[in-house]
Amino acid sequence: MLSIVIPTYNYFTLPLVKELQQQATSETIDFEIIVLDDASDNLEIRNQNLEINTLDNCSFFVNKKNLGRGQTINKLVSLAKFNLLILLDCDTKPKDHSFIRNYLRFKESSNAKIAFGGIIYSDEKPTPNEMLRWVYGRKRESVSVENRIKNPYKLALTSNLLVEKQVMIENPFHKEITEYGFEDMVLMLDLKKNNIEIQHIDNPLYHLKLDTSIDFITKFHSSLKNLKKLSDKEIINHSDSQITKVFYWIKRFKLVTLFAFAFTKFEKLLVQNLVSQSPSVLVFDLYRLGYFCKINLK
Q: Which residues pair with 232 in a beta bridge?
């Protein structure tokens, strides 16, 4: 009846699998949990995750080479034997012990093919060098169900998604996306284009792993390069992303060089705020826009 699929990379995923297995078992349903490691280079963590194979109805596999998150999820979908899927990120934890039950009850009462349960962050402040990821997550990703419903495609993520397998087969992650960044956005745009409705419910997961502020900034360097590629190849329109929308407004008035110069001049000052104990999401927006202008000059 239910396939729970989890891509992982250098993350100890066993605790999440144990919790989900206990919840699914208590529902007395046919289920499977499949974890696919995307060629982790941390062999200690990979070997710890092998214990997943000892749990009933649970499997752990390893990609021979790194495929990227989107292609790993595509592979997980192909491995799943049931039509009803739950896609989860490995660094998450259900808010309560009724997580699986909530999704099953939703499905019993709805014909919707997709539902997003939401992502939340702990109220407890993290260590100072993790503040940017925590602040950004709480302001941009932890959105109430009432607000998510107002913009259902923009505010859905595959880190906590109930979806029918056939939907994912017909709308896989784009093959052009092999690097980190914006793969969820492209998927949601495809679903919108194909008139596949996304429902939003209150069934959240805690996001656990927090990158250091420097690592988070570096990840966005990669994701913005990916965004440039998606835009250059016209996989997305200029209006699909707030960054590209503003960038093309700047480009229209021939101000890209000016913005890129200003970014280079003030980059250290911006980073100083972003790695502080009180990082500003607005400053991060300016940083990302400036970096996007810079890489578009090359």
A: none
Token readout for 61 is: 């596999």
Count of other CB atoms within 10 angstroms of residue 242: 12
| DSSP class per residue in 160-174 | EEEEEHHHHHHSPPP
Q: Please write the tens of the pLDDT for every residue from 191-233.
A: 999 999 999 999 999 999 999 999 999 999 999 999 999 999 9
Residue 142 amino acid letter: S
CA 17 to chain centre: 18
The structure's pTM equals: 0.95
* Residue 9, phi then psi, degrees to nearest 5: -155, 115
Tokens of 182: 């914006």
- C-alpha to C-alpha distance for 49 and 66, rounded to whole angstroms: 17
Token representation of residue 207: 């996001």
Q: Among the residues of 201-255, which ranges form H helices?
A: 213-232, 242-252
Mode of pairing for the β-strands spanning 31-37 and 58-62: parallel
How far apart are the C-alpha atoms of 166 and 266, rounded to whole Å? 48
